[in-house]
UniProtKB/TrEMBL annotation, chain A:
Alphabetical keyword list: Cell membrane, Membrane, Transmembrane, Transmembrane helix, Transport
Protein name, entry field: ABC transporter permease
Domain of life: Bacteria
InterPro entries xref list: MetI-like, MetI-like_sf
């Protein structure tokens, strides 16, 4: 059997490269668009708020807008609280209160993470541990942190530690549940690969399960941080003199809605900033490695 | 011809022999999966002996038990009866002496190629410096020194599989177990990786068990092809129906008449069983 010679074929070529410089126009347009879209709704809310107070609107649920301060007053008060230009005792105290609250959130949150992450990894991978703890956690989880507050005050007493304990409780469950879910969902192939390479069971938890569960853990941490701020105010309503929750409570006793709103907005900003900080911290930890976020 | 990989210290592993290329002995192996009303007998009375350094392919229709056999050799499953020995020592659980290459690679996405390959040696007692050196040699063996700093997600399927092969080889395994490693790759990549694997096997002399659906691939790569049949649909448990020595010179010519005769004979055995 003879082999035939291949047919004569002319090979065509090109010299246009595969990767070319990007056109510059696209980038600037995106940012302008985002700013323009971010403005209308907040501005509309401020406008409606102003009108509602001035016109003394009566809203559903029996809300009487007469008793609310208008946006301008709130803004003035807020600035006064921050830089001390106001005439009352609360003026200039914003930083002190914010710092006190932030410290409590930090402590409670970090403590919750330190306990919930290792526990979640163990519960997610070791059936015995999960079965031991499932029912206990199942009963504790639905109890709202506000229900813990009286007990916490009685047992721990007034002050920082009680509040930190409440923040811990609020942050603990989201971190735990998300960690368990992440640990549970590790691709079995990665575990087999680790076993094949001769890695012992404990080491696998740290080297394979933890990184693989990081996206879930990150979700849990961010949710928990948000809840920490929510709960903080509850914890600061009784027997605490510094803190944004305490500020709001004092303002309530004085019927100062402008201070209340300023306090609420400060909490909102603090929450936003702490979330940004958390994301920055996490991205530093993951150092650009894929599969961790 | 010895590679630099072979002149490096061997990672101290907890399992058995450390000489690359050990003999595999399978005697009377049964694999029974318990069910509700009836058990599934994936394998029964299986006997197999693979010489040190041999490249053996296992082919057969789907679910004939070839992957089950590989998993038993790897130690991911334990046989319900019978003996599996590596170099005379019974297999107990997975370990670096039996490197496994999976069809879906199984690389750690958050580790670079270098870190993936160095991970085994590191965990088995080597210092970071030694592990990196061994990993570098293993990557060189598969031709990927330049991709050492890249993450699996940045590599093509063929490159990822080469990293996976390097990862297994970095631990100087006695046996290399490959479960349809090129199944997820395109034909061109597959063919070039087959060439690479032939070269690697020649250079390291590691006993290799290779599972594939492609008869051409099996005849191309192996010293010996084992044909299995049975499993779901056939009514019989998984068993060996033929054991063929491929007496063709290397490098193999897939267009040669002799090659095609082996191919047709083996395909005939597989499809004869399927009818």
């Amino acid at each position: 059997m003879t082999t035939l010679a291949p047919p004569a074929i002319e090979r065509r070529t090109t010299s246009t490269p595969h990767v070319v410089p990007a056109t510059a126009v696209r980038r600037g347009r995106g940012r302008t668009r985002r700013i323009l879209l971010a403005l209308p709704i907040p501005l509309a809310i401020l406008a409606l708020w102003w009108i509602a107070v001035r016109q003394q609107w009566q809203l559903p649920f029996g809300i009487d807008m007469r008793f609310l301060s208008d946006p301008l007053t709130v803004a003035q008060t807020w600035i006064g609280l921050a830089v001390g230009t106001g005439s009352d005792a609360l003026s200039g105290s914003l930083w002190r209160h914010t710092a006190a609250s932030a410290l409590r959130v930090l402590n409670g949150f970090l403590l919750a993470a330190a306990v919930a992450i290792p526990l979640g990894i163990l519960m997610g991978r070791l059936r015995v541990i999960r079965e031991l703890l499932d029912s206990t956690i199942g009963i504790l989880r639905p109890i709202p942190v506000t229900a813990w507050a009286p007990l916490s005050l009685l047992l721990i007493g007034y002050g920082d530690r009680s509040t930190i304990f409440l923040v811990f409780l609020a942050a603990f469950f989201p971190i735990l549940l998300n960690t368990i879910a992440g640990a549970h969902a590790v691709p079995p192939r990665l575990l087999e690969a680790a076993q094949m390479l001769g890695v012992d069971r404990l080491r696998v938890l740290v080297d394979v399960v933890l990184p693989s569960a990081m996206p879930s853990i990150t979700s849990g941490l961010r949710v928990a941080l948000g809840l920490s701020w929510v709960v903080l105010v509850v914890g600061e309503t009784v027997g605490i003199t510094t803190g944004l929750g305490a500020l709001i409570t004092q303002a309530r006793d004085m019927s100062r809605t402008d201070v209340i709103i300023a306090g609420m907005l400060t909490i909102g900003v603090a929450g936003l900033l702490s979330d940004a900080l958390l994301r920055r911290a996490l991205s530093t930890v993951t150092r650009g490695r894929p599969g961790l976020t | 011809m010895t590679t630099t990989l072979e002149s490096r210290p061997v990672p101290a592993s907890s399992s058995t022999t450390s000489a690359p290329g050990a003999a595999i002995s399978v005697r009377g192996v049964e694999m029974r999966f318990p069910g509700k009303d009836s058990d599934v007998l994936a394998l029964s009375g299986l006997d197999l002996h693979i010489e040190a350094g041999q490249f053996v392919s296992i082919v057969g229709a789907s679910s004939c038990g070839k992957s089950t056999l590989l998993r038993l050799l790897a130690g991911f499953e334990t046989a319900t009866d019978g003996v599996i020995e590596l170099g005379g020592v019974p297999v107990r659980g997975p370990g670096p002496d039996r490197g496994v290459v999976f069809q879906d690679y199984g690389l750690f996405p958050w580790r670079t190629s270098m870190e993936n390959v160095a991970y085994g040696p590191r965990r088995n007692g080597m210092s970071r410096k030694e592990a990196r050196a061994v990993a570098g040699d293993a990557l060189a063996l598969v031709g990927l020194e330049t991709a050492a700093g890249r993450f699996p997600g940045q590599l093509s399927g063929g490159m990822q599989q080469r990293v996976a092969i390097a990862r297994a080889l970095a631990n100087r395994p006695s046996v290399l177990l490959m479960d349809e490693p090129f199944g997820a790759l395109d034909a061109m990549t597959r063919s070039s990786l087959q060439e690479e694997l032939t070269r690697i096997h020649r250079e390291t002399g590691t006993t290799t068990v290779f599972i594939t659906h492609s008869v051409e691939e099996a005849v191309n790569l192996s010293d010996r092809v084992i044909v299995m049949a049975g499993g779901a649909g056939s009514g019989l448990c998984g068993h060996v129906i033929a054991d063929i020595d491929i007496e063709l010179p290397r490098p193999r010519d897939i267009n040669a008449t002799e090659f095609n005769r082996y191919e047709r004979a083996i395909s005939g055995l597989i499809h004869g069983d399927e009818s």
